[in-house]
Inverse folding.
């Protein structure tokens, strides 16, 4: 059965029947009498349901005739595209007055830009970009070259964006993004839409030159009609149209260049980004001119925030496609303003420019650092999808380097082992897939990313055991001594890297909890304690990997007998390990400070009416505990380490001063890395302020009841600063 609307809604029965025709074995019946009878009998909280209807089904049920849930209950003016066209909602031309026609086309372009930005922000394509009736019936626009070319490039751009997002599978964050709902998206070829756009642009350029030419030479130099009939507005309107068309052209070229395999189009893409940013400036400058003449386009014009002129555009109905959005309930969509749309595209272009300027590092450590730094910019879905498309192509890094080679380089293995037959083993192939998945996860939004990282931690620990078993089996089957040595080296290096990478994932998992504000102040003590434990293990694994790498290099490079020395004697701790030691000092100092405040001043006590501290410990670190990261760490370990913490001990063994000293020593090592230098400056600020706060609390904390202590993340997203004030 299908529902039919009440007469109060004024929806003809034929509209519903034509929208969903009867099929074989299907008979449409009017259920209005049944629903009316049920309404008279039902009380509040009751519903009609079958015998197999469960509570789970109730959670996903739709309430018929509720405008918030029933997509058929739209309150739009039109119930089909044809009805809207017949009613004159999308005229072609938009006006028989050429000046008004041009002004209205500019409004359509601006509103489409705002709709596109709104779509990128996660709303339905059907209710944003394709709320434009001209796009839904694009063939109708063919007599109007300007509008037709613009609609074609919009459709091609949507196709390109959907393609990169769906291939990268980042659309899982927002399933509606790539759902086309049967909209007319296909059939557009790059050459066709670009050639028509170029032809219109060339005509506009000639019209602009003609209107700027001296009076005697006008229409003589170039035999063509003006854009419209008002000579005083000709230049301004030509410029306004040109910057909009050129932005669309360069933006589409940018998308195509970034999709070229192995990053070959990145340099050209940066040129198109510069052009896009320039056209956005011209576009913004045109708003004053368009607002001054916008009143000519409409009588009694309604104010709108989605156009530069401030006038409501023709040819749009946000509720027209609301029925095609099923099975999702209808959404109330607030289209971004024109100014906000410009800001969005400027940020998108800046994010894409950072991706295009990336040097395509082959060292995994640098790749991960780039992705993490990029995520600090809080890029939107489209930018992150392009980053993922660049990183992973055909199962290879940038489409160039096999994942096994990436693992070998990250494990500091010599080049000779990169073609070892053991790369064909099932365990190593699974490890390669885990690494690919990790890169994809790191390109998702931070909430989705943390959830996925928690789930894959156990997979990384399991693959460690499988690899160890597989390598031992392979080593046992080796016969020659050289093959045995090669296998031993591969085992040792890969397993050390695998452990280090697993702890890196654990660190990222914990750090994202701060960015997502998942920890309450009462939980900071346990979080910093666990962060300290993970950092210690990560520094240990990184140190062991570097020692093994140095040892291999020494053995390979030894020429003279007197050059053979114990590598541990002249081994210098790498800057990366020293930076981890800075973090260790900060985490340990904060954990001990918070524990001492709880023990001595009874501040930030873990009091909750709903769950115990142990339960909260397990809620935050369940994934780490299941993966045994690290071994033999539990809530009991946390209690034993923090129960006896005292402020006097912390003052004597000032971890913050150690962090400050190491940070100052590291500056010369990162002189050419601005991101690391900025990080070191943040560490210095945190260490100095926490050290001062610690001394103040130790001196007057116990004797001054008015002292208020709070923690703020003013210098770093993960490490807090103690703020001491008198109330």
């Amino acid at each position: 059965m299908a529902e039919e609307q009440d007469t109060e809604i004024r929806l003809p029965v034929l509209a519903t029947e034509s929208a969903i025709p009867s099929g074989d074995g299907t008979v449409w019946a009017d259920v209005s009498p049944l629903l009316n009878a049920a309404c008279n009998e039902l009380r509040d909280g009751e519903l009609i349901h079958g015998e197999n209807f469960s509570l789970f089904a109730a959670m996903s049920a739709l309430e018929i005739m509720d405008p918030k849930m029933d997509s058929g209950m739209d309150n739009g003016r039109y119930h089909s595209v044809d009805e809207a066209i017949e009613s004159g909602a999308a005229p072609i031309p938009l006006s028989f007055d050429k000046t008004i026609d041009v002004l209205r086309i500019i409004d359509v372009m601006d509103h489409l830009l705002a709709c596109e930005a709104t779509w990128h922000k996660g709303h339905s394509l059907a209710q944003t970009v394709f709320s434009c009736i001209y796009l839904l019936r694009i063939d109708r626009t063919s007599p109007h070259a300007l509008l037709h070319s613009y609609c074609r490039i919009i459709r091609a751009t949507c196709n390109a964006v959907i393609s990169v997002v769906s291939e990268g599978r980042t659309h899982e964050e927002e399933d509606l993004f790539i759902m086309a709902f049967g909209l007319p998206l296909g059939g557009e070829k790059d050459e066709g839409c670009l050639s028509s756009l170029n032809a219109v642009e060339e005509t506009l350029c000639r019209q602009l030159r003609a209107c700027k030419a001296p009076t005697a030479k006008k229409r003589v130099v170039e035999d063509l009609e003006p854009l419209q009939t008002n000579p005083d507005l000709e230049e301004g309107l030509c410029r306004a149209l040109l910057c909009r068309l050129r932005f669309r052209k360069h933006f589409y070229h940018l998308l195509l260049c970034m999709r070229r395999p192995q990053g070959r189009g990145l340099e050209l893409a940066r040129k198109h980004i510069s052009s896009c940013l320039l056209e956005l400036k011209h576009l913004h400058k045109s708003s004053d001119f368009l607002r001054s003449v916008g009143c000519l386009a409409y009588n009694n014009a309604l104010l709108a925030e989605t156009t530069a002129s401030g006038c409501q555009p023709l040819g749009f109905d946000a509720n027209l496609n609301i029925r095609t959005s099923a099975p999702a309930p209808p959404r109330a969509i607030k289209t971004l303003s024109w100014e906000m749309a410009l800001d969005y595209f400027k940020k998108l272009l800046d994010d894409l420019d950072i991706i295009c300027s990336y040097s395509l590092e082959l060292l995994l450590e640098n790749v991960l650092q780039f992705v993490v730094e990029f995520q600090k910019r809080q890029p939107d879905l489209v930018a992150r999808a392009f980053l993922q498309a660049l990183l992973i192509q055909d199962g290879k890094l940038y489409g160039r380097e096999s994942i096994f080679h990436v693992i070998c380089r990250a494990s500091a293995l010599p080049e000779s082992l990169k073609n070892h037959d053991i790369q064909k083993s099932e365990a190593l192939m699974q490890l390669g897939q885990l690494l690919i998945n990790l890169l994809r996860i790191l390109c998702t939004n931070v909430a989705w990313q943390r959830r996925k990282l928690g789930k894959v931690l156990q997979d990384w620990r399991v693959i460690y055991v499988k690899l160890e078993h597989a390598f031992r089996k392979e080593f046992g089957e080796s016969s020659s001594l050289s093959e045995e040595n090669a296998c031993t080296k591969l085992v040792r290096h890969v397993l050390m890297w695998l452990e280090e990478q697993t702890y890196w994932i654990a660190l990222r998992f914990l750090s994202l909890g701060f960015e997502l504000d998942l920890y309450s102040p009462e939980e900071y003590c346990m979080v910093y304690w666990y962060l300290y434990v993970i950092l210690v293990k990560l520094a240990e694994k990184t140190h062991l990997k570097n020692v093994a790498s140095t040892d291999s290099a020494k053995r390979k490079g030894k020429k003279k007998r007197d050059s053979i020395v114990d590598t541990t004697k002249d081994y210098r701790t790498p800057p990366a390990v020293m930076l981890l030691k800075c973090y260790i000092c900060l985490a340990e100092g904060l954990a001990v400070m918070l524990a001492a405040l709880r023990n001595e001043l009874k501040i930030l006590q873990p009091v909750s009416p709903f769950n115990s501290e142990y339960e909260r410990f397990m809620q935050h670190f369940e994934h780490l505990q299941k993966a045994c990261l690290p071994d033999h760490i539990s809530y009991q370990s946390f209690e034993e380490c923090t129960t006896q913490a005292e402020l006097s001990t912390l003052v004597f063994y000032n971890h913050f001063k150690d962090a400050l000293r190491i940070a100052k020593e590291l500056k010369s090592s990162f002189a050419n890395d601005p991101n690391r230098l900025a990080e070191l400056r943040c560490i210095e600020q945190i260490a100095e302020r926490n050290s001062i706060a610690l001394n103040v609390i130790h001196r007057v904390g116990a004797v001054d009841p008015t002292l208020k202590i709070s923690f703020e993340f003013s210098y770093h997203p993960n490490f807090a600063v103690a703020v001491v004030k008198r109330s």
